[in-house]
Amino acid sequence: GIDELSSNRPPLDHSITRRKKTAGTVDRRDSAPPSWHSEAADLPHRQAMVQDIAKLLYARKKGQNPGRSWLERVPLKAKMLESQLYKNAASLEAYLNRSTLKIRL
What we know:
Layout lengths: L1 H6 L31 H22 L7 H21 L3 H5 L4 H4 L1
Helix pairs in contact: 2-3
C-alpha cells in the first residue's frame, strides 16, 4: 500500500534543496517582501506584465487548436506567473526587463 511506498523512501532534506535561479531573481521563500515593492505604484506595471504573459501563453499555442478550458485558464495562469515574477525579482528593473521575460517564465 501507500504506507509501504513512503517507508521505502529516504526522508527529504529540504536544507539542501536548490532552485534554479535566473537573472534578476532571488529566493524569497522565507523572507519578507523586498523593499522595492510598492503595491500602489507597481500596479500599472503588474497589470501590463499580466497582459504580456498572457500574450506569450497565447502565442505558444498559435497555429494549434487549444481547448476552451485552456483558453479560459490563461488569465489565471498569467496572474499566477506574474505574482511569482514580482515576488522573486531582485528589483523593479529586473522585474520589468522584457528581454529576460521568457527565460524567467
